[in-house]
Amino acid sequence: MISSDPLTMSPDIKKVAIDSRVENIAVIEKMIDDICAEHGITEEHYGNILIAITEGVNNAITHGNRENPEAKVTVEFITNNGKLTCKITDEGPGFDYENVPDPTSPENLEKPNGRGVFLMRHLADSVSFEDNGAVVELNFNNLK
Fold it and tell me: Measuring CA to CA, which residue among 27, 138, 132 is closest to residue 85?
C-alpha cells in the first residue's frame, strides 16, 4: 500500500544555476510558475512567492555578483508538505543584511532601489541569511 501521509512523502527538489544576467530572471519566473502549478499553490500565495523570489534573484545578480556574467546564481526550490523553501546563492562577498536601510523612511522614498530585502521580509513567511548574506533562504508556509 502506498502511504498518502504527507509527513512521509519525500520533498520535491529543483535546482538551477543561471549566469548573472538580469534577463535570466525569466528562467526563474518560469520555474516558479511551473512549481506553483505542479503543487497546486493558490493564486493568493503565487504573487508573494513570485515577487519575493525574483527580488532575491535580482539582488543576487545585481548586488551579489555585480552583473558579472561569469558568476552564477544558484536557485534551489524545495516543496514539501504544503511548504515552499527557496534558497538563492550568489558568488559575491555578501552584505550587511542586519542594517539594510528602511525604504519606507522619508529619506529613502525617492531612491530608485533598496526595496528587495524589505519586500522579501514582508512577502515570505520567514527569511534567513547565511554566508554573510551571499545565501538567502525564503520560506512560504501553508500554501494550499
Answer: 138
DSSP 6-72: GGGSPPEEEEEEEES-GGGHHHHHHHHHHHHHHTT--HHHHHHHHHHHHHHHHHIIIIISTT-TTSE
How confident is the model over 54-64, as pLDDT tens digits?
999 999 999 99
Q: What confidence tens digit (pLDDT) does each residue in 98-133 have?
A: 888 888 888 878 876 778 999 999 999 999 999 999
Q: CB neighbours of 80 closer than 8 A, spacing ≥ 6?
A: 9, 10, 11, 12
Q: What is the C-alpha separation between 17 and 27, in angstroms, rounded? A: 10
**Relative orientation angle of helices 43-59 and 25-38, to the nearest 10 degrees:** 150
pTM for the model: 0.90
Cell of 11: 520533498
